[in-house]
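Incident log, support desk, overnight shift.

02:14 A customer reports that sequence design results differ from what the structure should imply. Their input is reproduced verbatim below. On-call engineer (initials T.W.) acknowledged and began investigating.
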C-alpha cells in the first residue's frame, strides 16, 4: 500500500491516498479528502479508494531507512497521518537488524514533504517505546526467541497524532499530556497539562478531545483525587487552548472512541455512551448486544461495531440497534479492520479455502476482504457478492488464490 500526493496548477495543494494495484498503476484524483487522523470520523474508514485514472507510479518516493529495525520487534512506524502536503508519523531510528534489549529505541516525531519525501522537521520523543507500554514482556528476555513483536504496540498509539490545518495535536512522550505544535515548523505552541496521560486524541469542529488514563502510581501521587479521575475525556478549544469541559469516562476500549455530527461515542465496560461534543453532557447510554467489540466507527449518524463473531449497526441519535449479523471470526494478532464504503460495511482480512469458505489461519490460506452488510437501506445487514483481488486490497502471505468481491453500491 503506497501513499501518493498530486498537485495541480490551479491549487495550492491537493492530496490523495493511493492503493497500488498489482499492475503498479495507481488510482489518482486531485482535490480529494486528506487523511489527517486515524479513522474515527470518516465516511469509509482509514483509507480512500479511487478508480484508476492515470499511471503515476513515477510520483512515488523512497526515503531512508528503507527497513525497520526488525520484523519481530515492536513496529517502528506508528500513527502516520497527512495534511496540507505533509506527512507526520512516529519513527524508531534505532540500530537496524540486531534485536537486543540493550540497544535503545530512538523515537522521533517526523514531518516530511508529501510530494517528494524531503524531511521538513523532526522532534525527538521522550520515554516512548516498549519499556513504556510492555516492559514486562521484553525486559530481561532472550529476544531471539520472541515472535510477533511487531504486533506488540497499543492500538491507541495510532490515535496520538492529529493534523488539523496549521496545527498538529500529539503527545511528545508515551504518558505525556497533549501538545499542540505548529504543523509547518514543529515548534511547540502549548501543552495542555489538564490532559496528562493522554491515550487518544480526536479533533472535530475545532475542538480537540483527549482521552486520558493515568497509571496507578500517577494517581497515588495526587492525594484526594477520586478514582474516576483516572480516566477522563477532556475537550480543548484548538485555537485558545482553553479547557472547555472534562468528564469522567471510565476505561475506554482502545480504538472504541469516535465523533460524528457533534457526538462523541465510546465504549466503556459493557456500555456504549454518547456525549455532546460542545459541552460534554450525556446524550444517551445503552448496553449493546456486543460480543467483545474490537472496532467502532461512526458514519452518517450510524455507529458500526464489530468484535468476535458479530457486526452490528446502531442509531447514533439514541443508541438503538439497527441490525446485527453473525460473521466468521478474524484471527491473528493485528487489530480488527472495519471500513464503510458507499454505505456498505467492510470487515478485515479472513482466511479462506480455495472455494472461499472461511477456515482457521494457516500459512498458505488466502486472505480475503469480507463485506458484511449495508446500512441503513431496506436490506439492513444483508451480505452482498464477492470481489476479485486487485486494485483495492492485496492479501499478504498467501499464494495465488482468488479473493472475494462485493458490490459497493448503496441500496
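02:41 Re-run completed on a clean worker. Output:
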Amino acid at each position: 500500500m503506497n501513499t501518493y500526493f498530486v498537485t495541480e496548477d490551479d491549487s495550492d495543494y491537493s492530496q490523495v491516498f493511493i492503493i497500488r494495484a498489482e499492475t503498479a498503476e495507481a488510482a489518482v484524483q486531485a482535490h480529494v479528502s486528506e487523511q489527517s487522523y486515524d479513522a474515527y470520523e470518516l465516511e469509509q474508514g482509514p483509507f480512500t479508494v479511487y478508480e484508476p485514472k492515470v499511471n503515476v507510479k513515477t510520483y512515488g518516493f523512497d526515503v531512508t531507512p528503507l527497513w525497520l529495525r526488525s520484523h519481530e520487534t515492536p513496529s517502528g512506524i506508528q500513527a502516520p497521518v497527512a495534511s496540507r502536503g505533509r506527512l507526520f508519523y512516529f519513527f524508531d531510528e534505532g540500530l537496524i537488524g540486531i534485536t537486543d534489549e540493550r540497544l535503545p529505541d530512538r523515537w522521533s516525531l517526523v514531518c516530511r514533504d508529501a510530494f517528494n519525501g524531503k524531511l521538513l522537521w523532526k522532534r525527538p520523543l521522550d520515554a516512548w517505546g516498549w519499556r513504556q507500554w510492555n516492559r514486562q514482556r521484553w525486559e530481561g528476555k532472550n529476544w531471539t526467541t520472541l515472535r510477533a513483536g511487531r504486533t506488540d504496540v497499543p492500538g491507541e498509539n495510532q490515535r496520538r497524532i492529529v493534523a488539523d490545518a496549521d496545527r498538529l495535536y500529539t503527545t511528545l512522550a508515551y504518558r505525556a499530556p497533549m501538545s499542540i505544535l505548529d504543523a509547518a515548523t514543529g515548534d511547540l505552541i502549548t501543552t495542555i497539562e489538564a490532559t496528562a496521560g493522554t491515550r487518544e486524541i480526536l479533533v472535530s469542529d475545532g475542538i480537540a478531545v483527549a482521552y486520558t488514563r493515568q497509571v496507578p502510581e500517577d494517581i497515588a501521587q495526587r492525594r484526594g483525587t477520586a478514582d474516576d479521575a483516572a480516566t477522563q475525556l477532556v475537550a480543548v478549544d484548538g485555537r485558545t487552548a482553553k479547557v472547555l469541559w472534562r468528564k469522567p469516562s471510565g476505561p475506554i476500549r482502545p480504538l472504541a472512541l469516535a465523533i460524528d455530527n457533534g457526538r462523541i461515542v465510546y465504549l466503556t465496560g459493557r456500555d456504549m455512551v454518547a456525549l455532546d461534543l460542545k459541552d460534554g453532557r450525556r446524550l444517551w447510554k445503552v448496553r449493546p448486544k456486543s460480543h467483545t467489540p474490537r472496532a467502532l466507527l461512526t458514519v452518517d449518524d450510524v455507529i458500526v461495531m464489530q468484535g468476535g463473531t458479530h457486526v452490528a449497526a446502531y442509531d447514533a441519535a439514541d443508541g438503538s440497534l439497527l441490525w446485527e449479523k453473525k460473521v466468521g471470526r478474524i484471527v491473528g494478532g493485528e487489530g480488527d479492520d472495519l471500513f464503510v464504503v458507499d454505505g456498505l460495511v467492510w470487515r478485515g482480512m479472513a482466511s479462506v479455502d480455495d472455494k472461499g469458505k472461511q477456515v482457521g489461519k494457516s500459512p498458505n490460506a488466502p486472505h480475503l476482504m469480507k463485506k458484511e452488510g449495508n446500512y441503513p437501506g431496506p436490506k439492513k445487514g444483508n451480505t452482498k457478492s464477492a470481489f476479485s483481488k486487485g486494485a483495492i486490497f492485496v492479501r499478504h502471505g498467501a499464494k495465488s488464490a482468488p479473493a472475494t468481491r462485493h458490490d459497493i453500491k448503496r441500496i
